[in-house]
Specification:
With about 140 residues, the chain is mostly helical. The chain is built from 7 helices and no strands.
Length: about 140
Amino acid sequence: YLRSDNLDGAVASLQELDSPHFHHELVYQAILLVLERDADQTVTDRIIRLLDKLCRSVVISLDQLVTGVKRVYAELPDIQADLPVAHVLLERFLRAAVKAGFLPQKLANEMPAKPRKRFVSEGDGFRKAVPIERF
């Protein structure tokens, strides 16, 4: 699909597999592909179009979409080991999916935000040395 841009062919191929219980895996793999190819906007656009078509035609149910997205978040620490900016890319993808209309804003809001790193100066237990009084 990514090379041919044949959206109807991709939908038909997925339906021919007759394995709807694995559609969450397609969502998961599609999102991973977007993360891995973040510099290629064509890939992102085509994956957004594919998932939009699959969700609107109810080939992929909301439950399958949710499961696929949550799997990416569950494995995000491992993904970030190879791709440190994965969380940023994932948030960007989710914004595009919400804008396309197939991902509910509520689901995007439920996904965990990346915690910001705290610095020692923000009170992580670091204490200044108390000056020693001279006798």
